[in-house]
């Protein structure tokens, strides 16, 4: 819009913005933060339509949301997303095993200073090998 800064040009801070979609206008609270990484300083843009949230609450909501995204990525990397269940007991058993496997793998990724579940699976295949067919359980690139 004329006379307004593009979001990418906003300095760190808390802002309110009106977003228009068709004839509907929604006000959002936008938190702009700077983060330093090895590759330099990067901006992060967190937003919410709940205007009562504090900066800390916005950060926490996005942190939890990001953890869910990471969980979905890890589930896909482990090949655990394609399962069908006919009985409730089977579903409960699968969820228990799934939770254990996912948590153990995530902890190993952290302990081994790896970047992702995919890197862990490559590590296991490269260093541990295992019985023939063991690694076919997981979907490796």
For the termini, the CA-CA separation is: 44 Å
Rg (C-alpha, Å): 21 Å
Q: N-to-C SSE series? A: EEEHHH
DSSP strand content: 15-25%
Quaternary state of this entry equals single chain
**What's the average pLDDT?**
80
Helix content: 40-55%
| Secondary-structure-derived class | alpha+beta
Instruction: Identify the strand order in the major beta sheet.
Output: 1-2-3
General form: extended
What count of helical segments does DSSP give?
A: 3
Poorly predicted spans: none
User: What is the domain tally?
Assistant: 2
Count of beta strands: 3
Largest sheet data: 3 strands, antiparallel
Summarize the structure.
InterPro entries: RNaseH-like_sf, Transposase_ISC1217. With 141 residues, this protein is α+β, with helices and mostly antiparallel strands.
Could you walk me through the main structural features you see in this protein, from its secondary elements to its overall organization?
By secondary structure, the protein is α+β, with helices and mostly antiparallel strands. It has 2 domains: 1-53, no CATH class; 68-141, no CATH class. Helix content is 41%, strand content 23%. It has helices at 55-77, 88-111, 117-127; strands at residues 13-21, 24-37, 40-48. Strands 1-2-3 form a 3-stranded antiparallel beta sheet, covered by helices on one side.
């Amino acid at each position: 819009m004329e006379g307004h800064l593009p979001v990418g040009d906003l300095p760190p801070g808390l802002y309110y913005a009106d977003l228009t979609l068709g004839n509907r206008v929604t006000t959002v609270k936008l938190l702009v933060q700077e983060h330093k990484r090895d590759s330099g300083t990067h901006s992060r843009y967190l937003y919410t339509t709940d205007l009562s949230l504090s900066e800390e609450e916005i950060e926490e909501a996005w942190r939890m949301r990001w953890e869910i995204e990471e969980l979905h990525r890890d589930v896909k990397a482990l090949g655990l997303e394609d399962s069908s269940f006919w009985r409730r007991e089977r579903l409960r058993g699968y969820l228990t095993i799934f939770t254990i496997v996912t948590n153990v793998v995530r902890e190993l990724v952290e302990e081994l200073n790896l970047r992702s579940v995919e890197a862990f699976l490559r590590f296991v295949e490269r260093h541990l090998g295992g019985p023939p067919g063991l690694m076919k359980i997981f979907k490796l690139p």
